[in-house]
Each structure stands twice: as structure tokens, then as C-alpha cells.
Request: fold
Amino acid sequence: MIKTRTSWKDSGYDCDHCGGKILLRTDHETGQPKQELYQCELCGCQWALNGDVLRIGNSSSCETAQEERVAETADEERLSRRFVIVLSIVAVLLIGRFGGIAALRLIIPLALVV
Reply:
């Protein structure tokens, strides 16, 4: 029979959405490693131990904070995508300049596969 036990400890943090107390939630399930996460006592938001959002709470301030987080990550992804494209173009130009056309004939099929 599988038994689940949940223990709660005060993490010392306060929720930046609703001001509630953030608790360290530890789930002990029979035959499984323990799972730990942070959960707000009032709004129910959940975070992984590294700070990633696992579940958004049920208040409007939680939804607003998540929208701001998504907007920030979209800007970061756009920057990194541009960086990869520019770096790829520079790499192809350098290979063409120093390796000649023969090197490009070998590199292009590899680029298409990846």
C-alpha cells in the first residue's frame, strides 16, 4: 500500500505576490524519493527549490507576476536566438574564408542534420 505523508516547515520567506508565509513542503511517498518545494500558505503558488515557478496561485497578483516573468523570459530568449544566428553566420564565413569551399561542402550537410 502506498502512503503519502506531507510535512511543512517555515522557510523564512514571504510571498512577493500576496505577502503570505512561504513554507517548505516535503512529500514522503512510499518507495519514492522525497519531493521538496516551496508553497505559499495564502495564495498557493509553488516554486521549485531553485526558484522556478511550478504552479501559479489563485489571486490576481499571482497572475500579474507570472505575466511579468513570461515577458522577461521572452526578451532573454529573443536575445539568445539572435546571438546564435549571428554566431552561426560568423562561423560559416570563417570556415569559408580559411577552409575554402571544400570545407563548406562538408559542413552544410552537418548543419542540416542538426
